[in-house]
Give the backbone structure.
Amino acid sequence: MAQQDTDQQRAGVLPVDDEGYVVDTEDCEEREAAWRERGTSRPITVVGNPVLHKECKDVTDFGDEFQQLVADMFASQRTAEGVGLAANQIGVDAKVFVYDCPDDEGVRHTGVVCNPKLVELPAEKRRLDDSNEGCLSVPTAYAPLARPDYAEVTGQDEKGNPIKVRGTGYFARCLQHETDHLYGYLYIDRLSKRERKDALRQMAENEPRYPVVAND
């Protein structure tokens, strides 16, 4: 038993709580830095690029090339000063996102989720929060969007192990937002036509603070 625990830690598996959810709040600074320092920051793909508007391919190979992708995603996320980043936001057709995001209590959560699926919540857990939302792929634009203030995601970690992640408040919004990305949806797709038009206007009128891929 003890040897198995040691092997899991060596494999980079996050610990889990009594209910089986990953504990992604420990050693966040060290884990994020370890990924980021191995990665190369890439420019962010913006709305209109086809890779953002289709479902990504499932991750099935968790080898060295994939580990480098995750490192690049953490590096790109830091450059863009984001709290979550999906692979297609750097032009890669792979169902994985990374996050380094606080919840509403200021607790930091850091991790990797592959092949995520949002858990459908029972009615009693569906309290909506209509805070502003933004997206690195729609730079400089923000709009209020109602989402549940609690979210659960199932999937796999960066080694392919099954995981469950849950979050509240701002972190719950992040989990929903990034999972949406991997199925071809941007947050502006959930807005009314008028709100979407306004978000695109905001984007057109301002300069992004990080490198982006132009849609030629």
